[in-house]
Q: What sequence folds into this?
């Protein structure tokens, strides 16, 4: 005869709990809980919860959902024998692997692809958006917060998953191109996007491209069935002849596959420069802080470019040559390298190409190579009788905002349809030829004449180059030299030319060359502007005392 099986104390408790109705025991404890905070921790109640959890995690979650502040302790007490409670890091990894897949970019940045209610969210692993989502998922499952160090360790693990197990994906910020179509991220809660192609645009519930978002991004308005881009001019202080230049800049800022011209707004105090700039940005890349003050260094410009689709600076009085060079890089695409923090020599490289907006009382683009990339618009002064209070202006803008955005999308689609028909005659082609061709297509879509946009662009560039020459004392000196009645030409070495220029009184010498080599460099910069002013700079061979230069008055 076999000896009777001896049960452990834990097995005795479990058998007793199963012999009764465990749910009735728990419900009785929950009823007593308001007056007896320890009721839920009585041995038979904990054992009943353990039995319920072993049979159905869902039923256990329902019963304990309203046990505020005590769920974590109950989860530990009702674990099966031999099981260890989950660490905070394990909790993060469990929900992270359950609800998302992981990938990496070509640069090695980890990416989370999250499926939520039929939409896909895309987050960099280092973004605040992913951190917030992970903390929310863990709290929903366990009603606990996650310490920062545990979150950091878990994200590092997810980064390894994306790098070594996940595919390589391409991510975009606000604007993208795929095939013949352009895509714009609305940055709304539904992660919707707009697709624009030749002759048509459509609103997509799910974007075929991977858009990421920065913490400061704000949503664009939902486009409607009908729009009216002409409503824009009610809210901007832009002169009529400059409007085609501005609206083309807006559309070009949505094309990541072409160089971006820089938009510069200039005008007296009270000409609505900042408001105009803020409204323009709201149609492309609305953010929490739409206007920034003057950058303190070149690095500030590149960091701004890495965190938004549009770089927007206001109230500028001047820009150093290095900063103007940085804006040229942003216009056509390039990078900025600096030493990686906490390393001896490894570089951290920021690569970007972004639309840029500037404003100031006077135009700050003075370097000729930047002027060729700049669209300068002089804003007229607003008469005191026509001024409005800020609240009324904002309310009117918000009413028209969706219709303006919709009209802009329609104009973009029509311009893309016209674009293959655009031809720019030789002699009229500008440095920013992609922008010029789009401008011609925009004018055609609006019913204008061929060549009209190029004429306006040429006139604007002429004014800008003339203004840029005024900031170089050497340019003024060269023009004085070329205007002398002795003849139409001057020829000599750079040393002789510098000596000749030094004799001239009353010339601004704040940017004056210190040597013949510096003079040669300045002449190369200002040569395009001088040609437009009727003065040609030519190399004239080499003499015994150095390279020679010829100045010809046309």
A:
């Amino acid at each position: 005869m076999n000896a009777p099986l001896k049960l452990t104390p834990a097995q005795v408790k479990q058998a007793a709990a199963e012999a009764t109705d465990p749910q009735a025991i728990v419900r009785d404890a929950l009823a007593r809980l308001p007056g007896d905070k320890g009721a839920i921790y009585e041995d038979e109640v904990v054992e009943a919860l353990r039995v319920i959890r072993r049979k159905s995690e869902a039923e256990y979650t329902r019963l304990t959902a309203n046990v505020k502040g005590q769920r974590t302790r109950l989860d530990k007490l009702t674990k099966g024998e031999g099981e260890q409670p989950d660490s905070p890091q394990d909790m993060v990894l469990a929900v992270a692997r359950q609800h998302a897949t992981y990938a990496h970019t070509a640069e090695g940045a980890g990416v989370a692809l999250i499926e939520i209610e039929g939409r896909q969210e895309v987050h960099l692993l280092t973004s605040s958006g992913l951190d917030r989502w992970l903390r929310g998922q863990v709290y929903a499952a366990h009603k606990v917060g996650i310490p920062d160090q545990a979150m950091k360790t878990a994200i590092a693990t997810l980064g390894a998953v994306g790098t070594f197990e996940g595919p390589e994906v391409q991510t975009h910020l606000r604007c993208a191109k795929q095939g013949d179509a352009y895509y714009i991220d609305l940055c709304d809660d539904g992660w919707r996007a707009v697709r624009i192609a030749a002759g048509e645009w459509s609103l997509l519930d799910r974007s075929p491209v991977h858009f990421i978002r920065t913490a400061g991004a704000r949503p664009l308005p939902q486009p409607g069935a009908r729009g009216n881009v002409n409503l824009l001019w009610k809210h901007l202080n832009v002169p009529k002849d400059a409007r085609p230049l501005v609206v083309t800049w807006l559309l070009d800022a949505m094309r990541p596959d072409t160089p971006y011209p820089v938009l510069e707004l200039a005008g007296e105090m009270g000409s609505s420069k900042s408001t105009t700039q803020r409204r323009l940005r709201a149609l492309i890349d609305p953010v929490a802080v739409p206007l920034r003050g003057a950058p303190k260094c070149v690095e500030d410009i590149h960091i701004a470019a890495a965190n938004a689709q549009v770089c927007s600076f206001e109230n500028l009085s001047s820009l150093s040559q290095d900063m103007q060079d940085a804006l040229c890089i942003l216009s056509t695409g390039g990078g900025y390298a600096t030493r990686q923090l906490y390393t001896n020599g490894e570089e951290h490289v920021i690569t970007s190409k972004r639309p840029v907006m500037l404003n100031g009382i006077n135009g700050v683009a003075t370097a000729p190579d930047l002027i060729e990339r700049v669209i300068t618009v002089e804003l007229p002064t607003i008469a005191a009788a026509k001024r409005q209070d800020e609240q009324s202006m904002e309310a009117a803008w918000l009413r028209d905002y969706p219709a303006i955005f919709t009209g802009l999308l329609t104009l973009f689609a029509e311009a893309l349809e016209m674009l293959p028909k655009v031809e720019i005659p030789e002699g009229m082609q500008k440095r920013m030829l992609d922008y010029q061709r789009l401008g011609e297509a925009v004018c055609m879509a609006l019913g204008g004449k061929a060549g009209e946009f190029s004429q306006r662009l040429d006139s604007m560039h002429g004014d800008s180059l003339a203004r840029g020459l005024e900031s170089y004392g050497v340019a003024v000196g060269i023009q004085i030299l070329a205007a002398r009645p002795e003849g139409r030409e001057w020829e000599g070495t750079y040393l002789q030319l510098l000596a000749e220029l030094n004799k001239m009184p009353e010339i601004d010498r704040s940017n004056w060359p210190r040597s013949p080599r510096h003079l040669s460099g300045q002449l190369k910069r200002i040569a395009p502007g001088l040609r437009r002013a009727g003065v040609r700079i030519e190399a004239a061979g080499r003499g015994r005392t150095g390279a020679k230069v010829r100045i010809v008055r046309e």
User: Anything to note?
Assistant: The chain has 19 helices and 18 strands. The chain has four domains: 9-77, 88-164, 229-379+397-466, 472-553. Residues 310 and 355 are 5 Å apart (CA to CA).
